[in-house]
Design a protein that fits this description.
The structure is a single chain. The protein has a two-stranded antiparallel ribbon with strand order 1-2. The protein is built from two helices and two strands, in the order H-E-E-H. The chain starts with a helix and ends in a 7-residue tail after the last helix. It is flat.
Length: about 100
């Protein structure tokens, strides 16, 4: 008989806790988000995850630059890539001239 009463108390506790979980939560005032920098602000600092460390699953240290600096880094990398591709296509010929 004791096992039945323990079981009944346990089930009663579960039912009561689930019933109290269904009660609506008290209303809270929404928290105002901090003012975000506009996406077109060239002087806003943006951080990216660094290159992964060789042999590790973790990213490297964060790298932070302004939006203007990130755009310049992107343009420089594109120019280097184009220059390398052009040099390969010029050197592919038999005489090495374009």
């Amino acid at each position: 008989m004791r096992k039945v009463s323990v079981l009944a108390v346990t089930l009663g506790t579960i039912v009561m806790s689930s019933a109290s979980a269904q009660e609506p939560a008290p209303a809270v005032a929404p928290v105002a988000a901090p003012a975000a920098a506009p996406a077109d602000d060239a002087n806003a600092i943006v951080c990216h995850a660094g290159e992964p460390i060789l042999g590790s699953r973790f990213p490297g240290p964060r790298v932070c630059h302004t939006r203007r600096e990130w755009e310049q880094i992107k343009r420089d990398a594109q120019e280097v890539l184009i220059r390398q591709q052009m040099n390969r296509s010029c050197n592919a010929g038999t005489n090495g001239q374009c």
